[in-house]
């Protein structure tokens, strides 16, 4: 037996340290659709042999023959002290607190050090492949041990030749000539500007904060397909304990003199410039009423008699006439400014209140919506809610149900339906929890294509507080707040030490699902929807739904292979 174990697995495997993961065959051909980011994982370990290791050997990794420069990142374990809710199923990796693979960081000095009887992985991806690189590219991944080790005092140790090790792994990137269509899905993962100011300890909306905001928005569309950005014209009234408030990150400057308001939108203009630069197509205006029932107004700061003060908040009910007078002046001015900054009414989305439910909250929601409906005419009003009665009563034309409550909304034939998941969607349906296998996350892409879903919402791109924003948490140590949510629910990206986001396996699995959605759309334009649906359902027993869908990684890798074959056959 070799001293070392090196092999490749696909991007859907979560490599656990104590179990040898499945591998893909050496030389495997992977279909690559221009506009996607193909990825594999290099798995490595040191076997416990008879020869006593004199010291851990560093290895370098070189990728040869790829059409673009490969990027390599170390797959790191993170603590998941709350893997799942009580409402769960048997499809999790574990229900016990555990260290699980998720964080993707640059390799330490470009090296790996295999550890005895412990599997680790390197995420190897190939971003930026274009249709001009059509054809088969034979890629070699060369893993070679260092021939010398430099100690901390500068001394060098020459590794004996019989202790050195080199191996080569192979795969083929088979690039198609057809570029994917543009994403049509409206996709938001809520951006929490205040979390960035808190985590990095910078002045809210100061220059350092703006630099970090820019860095975190940069990959939202280009990498993760997030084209709709939660925009804090007021500090969003989300996840806030009653009577408390979140850090102010209000983009609108407001002055009040009696019943007359004047507005400054310089900060919003800067926000829009950043958004446009990074491909954000829609602004999602922060909710205009409090969460879970629309009983109160959001925290709004204004200058009155030269002093900044809170003019609305928990002490002002949602049906306040004073708030209506304010909205009558603010919303037209806001919409005019957004249009000037590149986001007209068709590209500006509004919310009333997040997750209203039950008959007791219906009347509050009705009154709140009446406060704004005529003022935002022509723009989309959407709200995350799973109580079908809100739609049935005509209160919400564009509901966003959870994926475990979507059935009646689908049966109602609602056009351009959105969907979301969060902490509560923990049994049978897809989600992005770290303790779920990656196919459970990736499945959303196929399902959203299958059911013609127009929008996807998730509440945390970068939420680094505990529940109800009571305290700041370190997401590297607390992946689910203070055991408030299953690990991975509150954020897609980790906050890097350099003020830039750091990706995760659960983010990449979600990205690959969105790629699947666009790949299927491409095939539909070439061969028709019926042909695509036939491939999706091939070999799958029963009707595919948000509760019943493929759980095997092989389904998703083979799906791309089948779609690639269909496209090649159709364009010969």
How is this structure best summarized?
The protein has 572 residues and is α/β, with parallel strands linked by helices. It has helices at residues 193-200, 207-222, 266-277, 321-340, 359-372, 388-392, 407-411, 438-450, 505-527, 529-537, 553-570; strands at 4-10, 28-32, 39-46, 59-64, 71-80, 98-106, 111-112, 120-125, 135-145, 148-150, 156-158, 166-175, 186-189, 228-231, 253-257, 260-264, 282-285, 300-304, 307-312, 348-350, 380-384, 398-400, 418-420, 455-458, 494-495, 501-502. Helix 8 (438-450) runs parallel beside helix 9, helix 9 (505-527) packs across helix 10 and helix 9 runs parallel beside helix 11.
Give structural notes.
With 572 residues, the protein is α/β, with parallel strands linked by helices. The chain is 25% helix and 24% strand. It starts with a strand and ends with a helix.
């Amino acid at each position: 037996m070799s001293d070392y174990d090196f092999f490749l697995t696909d991007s859907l495997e979560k490599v656990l340290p104590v179990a040898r993961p499945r591998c893909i065959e050496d030389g495997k051909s992977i279909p690559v659709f221009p506009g996607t980011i193909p990825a594999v994982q290099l798995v490595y370990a040191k076997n416990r042999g008879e020869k006593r290791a004199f010291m851990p050997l560093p290895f370098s990794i070189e990728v040869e023959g790829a059409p673009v420069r490969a990027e390599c990142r170390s797959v790191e374990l993170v603590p998941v002290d709350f893997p799942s809710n009580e409402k769960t199923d048997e499809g999790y990796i574990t229900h016990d607190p555990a260290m699980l693979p998720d964080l993707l960081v640059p390799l330490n000095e470009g090296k790996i050090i295999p550890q005895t009887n412990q599997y680790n992985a390197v995420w190897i991806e190939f971003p930026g492949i274009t249709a001009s690189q059509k054809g088969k590219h034979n890629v070699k991944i060369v893993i070679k041990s260092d021939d010398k080790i430099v100690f901390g005092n500068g001394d060098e140790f020459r590794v004996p030749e019989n202790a050195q090790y080199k191996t080569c792994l192979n795969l083929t990137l088979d690039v198609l000539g057809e570029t994917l269509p543009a994403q049509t899905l409206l996709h938001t993962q809520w951006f929490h500007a205040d979390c960035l100011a808190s985590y990095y300890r910078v002045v809210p909306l100061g220059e350092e904060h703006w630099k970090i905001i820019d860095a975190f928005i940069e990959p939202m569309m280009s990498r993760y397909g997030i084209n709709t950005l939660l925009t804090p014209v007021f500090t969003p009234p989300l996840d806030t304990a009653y009577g408390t408030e979140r850090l102010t990150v209000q983009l609108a400057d407001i002055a009040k003199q009696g019943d007359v308001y004047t507005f400054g939108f310089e900060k919003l203009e800067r926000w829009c410039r950043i958004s446009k630069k990074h491909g954000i197509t829609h602004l999602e205006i922060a909710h205009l009423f409090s969460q879970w029932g629309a009983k109160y107004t959001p925290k709004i700061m204004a200058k009155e008699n030269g002093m900044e003060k809170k003019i609305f908040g928990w002490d002002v009910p949602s049906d306040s006439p004073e708030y209506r007078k304010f909205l009558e002046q603010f919303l037209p001015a806001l919409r005019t400014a957004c249009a000037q900054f590149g986001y007209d009414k068709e590209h500006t989305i509004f919310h009333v209140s997040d997750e209203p439910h039950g008959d007791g909250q219906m009347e509050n929601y009705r009154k709140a919506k009446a406060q704004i409906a005529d003022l935002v005419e022509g723009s989309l009003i959407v709200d995350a809610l799973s109580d079908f009665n809100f739609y049935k009563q005509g209160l919400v034309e564009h509901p966003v149900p959870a994926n475990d409550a979507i059935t009646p909304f689908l049966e109602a034939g609602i056009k351009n339906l959105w969907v979301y998941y969060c902490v509560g969607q923990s049994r049978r349906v897809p989600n992005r929890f770290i303790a779920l296998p990656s196919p459970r996350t990736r499945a959303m892409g196929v399902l959203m294509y299958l059911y013609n879903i127009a929008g996807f919402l998730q509440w945390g791109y970068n939420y680094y507080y505990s529940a109800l924003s009571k305290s700041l948490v370190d997401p590297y140590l607390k992946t689910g707040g203070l055991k408030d949510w299953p690990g991975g629910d509150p954020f897609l990206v980790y906050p890097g030490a350099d003020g830039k986001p750091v990706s995760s396996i659960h983010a990449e699995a979600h990205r690959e699902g969105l790629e699947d959605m666009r790949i299927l759309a491409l095939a539909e334009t070439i061969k028709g929807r019926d042909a695509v649906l036939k491939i999706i359902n091939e070999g799958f027993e029963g009707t595919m739904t948000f509760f019943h869908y493929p759980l095997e990684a092989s389904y998703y890798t083979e799906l791309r292979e089948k779609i690639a074959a269909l496209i090649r056959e159709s364009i010969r």
